[in-house]
Amino acid sequence: MEYIIEMLNIRKEFPGIVANDNITLQLQKGEIHALLGENGAGKSTLMNVLFGLYQPEKGKIRIRGKEVKIPDPNVANDLGIGMVHQHFMLVEPFTVTQNIILGKEPKTITGRIDLKKAEKEIRELSDRYGLKVDPTAKIRDISVGMQQRVEILKTLYRGAEVLIFDEPTAVLTPQEINELMEIMRSLVKEGKSIILITHKLKEIMQVADKCTIIRRGKGIGTRNVADTNANELASLMVGREINFKVDKHPATPKETVLEIKDLYVRDKRKIDMIKGLELNLRAGEIVGIAGIDGNGQTELIEAITGLTKTHSGTILLNNKDITNKNPRKITESGVGHIPQDRHKFGLVLDYTIGENMVLQTYYKKPYSKAGILNLKEIYRYAKNMITQFDVRTPSIHTKARALSGGNQQKAIIGREVDRSPDLLIAAQPTRGLDVGAIEFIHQKLIEERDKGRAVLLVSFELEEIMDVSDRIAVMFDGRIVADLKPEETNEQELGLLMAGSSTKKAGEN
Amino acid sequence: MIDVLQSIIPTALFFSAPLIFTALGGVFSERSGVVNIGLEGLMVMGAFVGIVFNLTFADALGGWTPWISIIVATFVGAIFSIIHAVASVSFRADQVVSGVAINFLALGLGVYLTKQWYGKGQTEMVSQPFFSNDIPFLSDIPIIGPMFFKGVYTTSYIAILFAVIAWYILYKTPFGLRLRSVGEHPMAADTNGINVYKMRYIAVIISGALGGLGGSVFALTIASNFSHSTIVGQGFISLAAVIFGKWHPLGALGAALFFGLAQSLSVVSSSVPFLASVPDIFLLIAPYVLTILALAGFIGRADAPKANGVPYIKGTR
Amino acid sequence: MSSSHRLFSVLIPIISVLLGLIAGAVIMLLSGYNPITGYAALWRGAFGDAYTIGETIRRSTPYILSGLAVAFAFRANLFNIGAEGQVIVGWLAAVWVGISVEAPMVIHLPLAILAAALAGALWGFIPGLLKAKLGVHEVIVTIMMNYIALYSTNEIIRNVLTDHKTTTESIHESASMASEWLGSITFFSRLHYGILLALFIAIIIWFLIDRTTIGYELKAVGFNPHASKYAGMNVSKNIILAMVISGALGGLAGAMEGLGTYGNISVMSGFSNIGFDGIAVALLGANTPLGVVIAAFLFGTLKEGAGEMPTGAGIPTELVDVIIAIIIFFVASSYIIRWALLRFKGGKSK
Amino acid sequence: GGGADKEEETKDADKGEEETTTDFKVAMVTDIGGVDDKSFNQSAWEGLKAWGEEHGIEEKKGFDYAQSNDKADYMPNLTRLIRDEYNMIFAIGFELKEDLNKVAKQYPDTHFAIVDDVVEQDNVASINFKEHQGSFLVGVAAAMKTKTNKVGFVGGVDSPLISKFESGFIAGVKSVNPDIEVDVQYAESFGAADKGKVIASNMYNNDIDVIYHASGGTGNGVFNEAKDLKKNDPDRDIWVIGVDRDQHEEGQIGDHNVTLTSMVKRVDVAVHDLSNKAMNGEHHGGEVLEYGLEEDAINVATTNEDAMTQDIIDAVEDWKEKILSGDIEVPKTREETEKFLEAL
Ligand SMILES: Nc1ncnc2c1ncn2[C@@H]1O[C@H](COP(=O)(O)OP(=O)(O)OP(=O)(O)O)[C@@H](O)[C@H]1O
Ligand SMILES: Nc1ncnc2c1ncn2[C@@H]1O[C@H](COP(=O)(O)OP(=O)(O)OP(=O)(O)O)[C@@H](O)[C@H]1O
Ligand SMILES: [Mg+2]
Ligand SMILES: [Mg+2]
Questions:
Q1: pTM of the entire structure?
Q2: InterPro entries given for it (chain A) (predicted)?
Q3: CA of B297 to nearest chain C CA: how many angstroms apart?
């Protein structure tokens, strides 16, 4: 059997940690090979080694049977390796075309970039692989899905034969995920080979041919996907059984906590993003907002939390009007918020994890008194939270930046939950996390519900919505178009509703 | 009105030229992600070299002296700026700190060497400075001619030309695309096979060259000699022009010209009837106040290149 | 790990200063001077006797405050190049109150100091406001504000405080920080009580930055305005507050000159450089109050000592600027020193 | 009391070998700028050197200077020289006034002199120059030279000292021809060549053909602009009047020279003179010494023979006589100028 890429016994160390310890990965031409492992297991590191961003301490890399050294991404490109990074490597103010050709620009004889030629080439590529993009649009104006297609085009433009995808679906909507799966299949059909990193077992089962599992930097083994199942993969990865079915009792909703009436919100361009939205949320229930990205979810959350001004309508919390109050007021009246973008909103990355734990409460007793911080109290509290929420960090004095995504998320959840808010908003709380961490977070949300809090869950992942919610509100075009019970619907129906095909109220059928 | 324009435009042109060169240098450096507070120092170096070279070789080179002087100053400015590049690109120094050091170093070294070589704190006046001239034919056009083409310095037009060239390079060529990408998202550039360090070195060296050029043009069109007070704040004004111009070569050009106009307007005003009654102090601070008002009024928010000021360390994000 | 971190943060500045001095020695050698004579003169100029020691401390005093001004803004991610203008208006305001108010010292002196702080604060408020509300880059506005301060102050000295003179009369005794006693123990140096105030304020600023909710907010806003807004902080308010406090510190640096060293203010033909040097002091001091205090003394020492170099050793004073520049470079390039130290250490242990 | 102890201490080792030929030592403290500023620091130093030469004294042993790089240096410089036991110390420039005032009080046994201002202390002689007289005479020259009947004055920083120049100049111009317009502009800096050039450019553009500058380095810009215009149009009459010393050299452009004349202020004469007096035990502490035309401490340069034609020189001489004889009193301030002009 001929391998296009062989990474043999790779070892990569970082100060204080062995990220890759004797890992072997063999990729055949024309296959989709999944790479599975918990957060921090060493997947990205391994791929960065292959892409020439890191140099391994030990091990060999063979390409098409020939041993190679890959000192930098240029060499990787020349060897036909392309990588779609977990965090997109796109220059925001540049156009799609500029991003794709960057570093390999076609020139006219006068030394000018030959944009026409470039655009033509991109059009050809995008037609051939079904990667729809607008070559003249700026990156900052296009959707995440299109950004990802740009990343793929970048690798194809450079003639990549092997494509590495690092958690490509973490940022995509279900529709976009389906499209991506299609794209991957067509890439393979065209003779490309793919390494896919993902935490979603379903996706692996769906498209991958093989799956290599790593745990804490060590290779556990490779399985033929056809010969295995999700449960086996999960337990190989975590080293224990994983409970996929979320355990929960039926909800016992009580008084109304959140009531939104006829809400309108406009974005910067003065376009209505929320158009007369109505929503009720009661204590002791989890309402999941299902919807495709861009249908007003972000605006809804920002309006409730005071980060954006509403145009009209009212938002009542425990029957008190909190419309357009400042974020501090709103938090104090009982709202907790796990933000979608944890780096931008959730944490001050340059603060220590200890300092981050009091981001919402630093001005209150006992963390400060008369404007003077009580560091002892803050650190005592932070230590406590870290143990309670299993945040894995060297110490509370470690900068938040140095923590892995899952641990950052746990810290935020701990901070928000511990304030016992009447309303807890969780936006994409499990994005990019491994199954173990997801399980933990789902449990926490349900615990909160059982303590009598109202939980608003926004997620693009239908599975998560279906598993965790007591009630599902489908959002489309700035409105709630359906209100359903999870046990009375299925993913098909939700998908249709999310695409705006019909409306439905709970209990109608 | 035309009278006023005819007297302020030529002065604005020579006043602005050194600022334009230097600001363009700032644009290159900051577009690549290296903050350059050291523009002032680069100008000092340029002025120093321009004057010293001119004084030394005036006899040998005759009419070519000023031209060769500014070329040499450009060259020395480029070399001098390597210090900033090494510190801020290779040594990952805080770029603001390194720039401040450049300012101290240039002035200290310039005056120190002047004292060593000339035995006094300031040089003689050069005998071969730049002279203004009338541009044939164009200067005969009514109204426009006297405004733009009579008694102008070739260096002023070179400055404007450089701004256009800088725009072309930054926005139309592969080199420019790469340079800007390095200032926005160095890691993206790196994964695309662009050598981030090399690009930043080149950009800083270009800024050194242009800063040196700006300083020497100032010295050879305006000051005529070198002392500790030859360059006092022009570099900072150039830095302001970089930001005012939103890190765009043509914006920087516009900002520098705006500043030159405001400056010469404040001088000319005393001879304009309806402004003559304005107390001098208001005319004196007018250029600075106008700049602030322009920014607050209609220029507004400017977004720096995203990675500006952040040392790039391979393998981190 | 953390103890070696602490060790490095002490070692690196020391090594930087040594390297700067070595470089200065090399330059002296190359220009045909004897470095030992040169440095002996520098030392005499700064610490030769009680007088020079007094003057060195006096010179360092405003640097502490202007350094704090720049450093404080930096902590909120703002670059205050305008400390210079804030120093000038603070100086003016202090002298103004010192001259025009008559009151017992317990009222007059604090009042004059307060006036300086307020004037500086106003000079910081404008760029802060423009930054917070309109997103105007503080660097340009503060540069422009420097010139406005310089020219307006000159105008006020000439036409308001005096009748077309270049220097105001002296402030009343009741507003003066000058001290006969401090002078007498330092042979008539101009050492004044401002140094105590400056050190006290450095402690306050340290406390403010590291131990109060205000400091917590300012730093948070500087690091990540989005997260700060999300956490309920008022981002605009914090930006303005940071600039106001920074400006007030600059104004206080001016008060040191107006109420301590000179007791008056003169028309200036150029900038005082106290504010500009404050940038270097802040950066040398790594933007921490303790660091700023140490850096201010280093700066004061070098600048004061430089005065003796031409007379004492025939060396131009500018050499000291070169040395300062090199020290700043090495402090900035701490990464490379750290790297070299680690190699050295590693090499030894192997 | 403290001062005396001090003096004992500072006789340290490396100065031990010094042996002065005379025990009288003189030194000066410059204002910002060095002894090579081509202006009065330089002139004062030249006076001191001439004095040293006259008495066969070596530099650094019997006479020396201390250079100030900024305002904060004056005091330490003064003190340093006192402690180095100089008997007579000159403070060059009005900027040193306040500091000298304090030092003089602290060291009553040292003799001081200040140039360009008045310090009322028993041990301080105040050297003032009658710049208004010289400015009056160059004003006469300007008035004779102008063809457009418009002349300009560029000041450095507006101050009583510089308004002496301004006042004398205006009075001189108007005395010759009251119809001549005088445009007065200040750059608010002694080191802003760019501002100087902008102002000069504007003045020449408005038909002004003679500019008198009293603006230090700012004047470089004025010379630069004048030379540029001259270079482009050698036939055009463009003139600059220099200040403090003969600025003939600054005006040279090819075969032409734009420096009409200069108002020369012989600080050296005053310093030399006063040093000798002090050496002879003749102190003028507490007095204001006025150096002017009589003492030959104020001159009008005639280096540019082509420009300073005989009739101009004659006119200048005429007016000089009138001043010396007391026929006219040259105004020193703007108020005095107003009165002076009314009386014309
Ligand atoms: N540049 C680095 N310096 C130090 N440690 C690093 C660096 N990059 C990664 N690590 C560490 O190496 C380990 C493996 O990280 P890696 O990024 O490969 O994990 P991953 O499997 O991709 O995780 P995730 O699923 O969260 O993306 C982690 O413990 C991480 O903290
Ligand atoms: N310079 C570094 N020092 C220490 N750890 C690092 C460094 N760079 C990256 N890491 C660690 O590498 C690990 C994996 O990084 P990766 O980019 O895969 O993020 P992640 O954990 O998947 O988080 P997310 O997906 O939320 O961004 C994280 O634990 C991160 O903290
Ligand atoms: Mg990863
Ligand atoms: Mg991840």
A1: 0.90
A2: AAA+_ATPase, ABC_carbohydrate_import_ATPase, ABC_transporter-like_ATP-bd, ABC_transporter-like_CS, P-loop_NTPase
A3: 9
Choose the closest CB to C270 out of D64, D80, D191. D191
Looking at domain A256-337+405-498, its CATH architecture is 3-Layer(aba) Sandwich (3.40)
Among 1.10.1060, 1.10.3470, 3.90.1150, 3.40.1000, name the CATH number for the domain at B2-301: 1.10.3470
Residue C258 sits in a domain whose CATH number is 1.10.3470
Q: What is the ipTM of this complex?
A: 0.88
* Residue D200, token pair as written in the block: 């000069």
Homologous superfamily assigned to A5-238 = P-loop containing nucleotide triphosphate hydrolases (3.40.50.300)
- Provide DSSP, B121-188: SSPPPPSS----BPPTTGGGSTTHIIIIISSB-HHHHHHHHHHHHHHHHHHHSHHHHHHHHHHH-HHH
* Residue D314: Cβ within 10 Å count: 11
| Ordered DSSP codes for D183-233 | EEEE-S-SS-HHHHHHHHHHHHHTT--EEEEE-TTHHHHHHHHHHHHHHH-
Ranges assigned E (strand) in chain B? none
According to DSSP, the residues that pair with A18 across neighbouring strands are A13
Question: What does the DSSP 8-state code read for residue C269?
Answer: S
User: Residue C338 falls within a domain, yes or no?
Assistant: no
CA–CA distance, A380 with A377 (Å, rounded to integer)? 5
Q: What is the mean pLDDT of residues C2-8?
A: 65
Spatial separation of the C-alpha atoms in residues A195 and A212, rounded to whole Å: 10
Which residues of chain A does B196 touch, with a Cβ-Cβ cutoff of 8 Å?
Answer: none
**pLDDT one-digit tens code per residue, A382-415:** 999 999 998 988 899 999 988 878 889 999 999 9
Chain C nearest C-alpha distance from B240 (Å): 5
Q: Which residue has the tokens 């002996």?
A: C40
B316 lines ligand 2 (CB under 6 A): yes
For tokens 């909507």, name the residue: A173
Q: With beta carbons less than 8 A apart as the criterion, state whether A296 and A466 touch.
A: no
Q: Which one-letter amino acid corresponds to residue A347? A: L
Q: How far is the centre of ligand 3, averaged over its atoms, from the C-alpha of D212 (Å)?
A: 74
Q: Can you tell me whether residue C9 is helix, strand or coil?
A: helix
**Considering the domain boundaries, does residue C101 fall inside one?**
yes
Best of A17, A340, A404, A431 for a ligand 2 pocket test (most atoms within 8 Å of beta carbon): A404
Domain boundaries, chain B: 2-301
Residues 6+ positions from A442 with CB-CB distance below 8 Å: A246, A430, A464, A467, A468
Number of domains observed in the structure of chain C: 1
pLDDT in tens, A218-274: 999 999 999 998 888 888 888 877 666 777 888 889 999 999 999 999 987 788 999
Residues spanned by the domain of C110 = 34-314
Nearest chain B residue to D249, by CA: B125
Backbone angles phi, psi at A208, to 5 degrees: -80, 150
Tokens of C319: 């050499």
- C81-117 pLDDT per residue, tens: 999 999 999 999 999 999 999 999 999 999 999 999 9
Q: Would you say residue C322 lies in a domain? A: no
Q: Does B165 touch chain D (CB under 8 A)?
A: no
Residues of A in contact with C212 (CB under 8 A): 368, 371-373
